[in-house]
Specification:
Elements (H helix, E strand, L loop, with lengths): L3 H5 L2 H11 L4 H17 L6 H4 L14 H37 L1
Amino acid sequence: MKNSAAQVLSLTVANAVEHCYGPSVQATVGFIRMMDKWFDVLNVKNLYEGKHKRNENLKPFTDINDPRLWWLEDFLARSANLLEGLYILLVLISYFLYLFIFLL
C-alpha cells in the first residue's frame, strides 16, 4: 500500500474511532485529525483538487496570510517540542542503563 500512513491517520478513521469509543479517546482522535490535516496541507497537487473534493486543506496556497500557514507553524513547533522531550527521555534512559550495567 502506497499511502498506508495517510489512510490510517485519516479523518474517516478519526470519526470511526470517536464513534466507537466515545469521549475516552479524544486525545487519539485529535492526533489523527491533526495528522490528516498535515498530510492534506503538504499534499496540494493541483489548483482544483481542493474544490472537487470539498476539502479546504487541499487548496493551493495563494496568500501569505493563509490560516493554514499559521496552523503549520504551530504544528511544527509542537512537533519540535515533542522531539525535544523524547530526546531528553532517551538521554535519561541511556544514563540509567549505563548506571545499571556498569555500576551493578
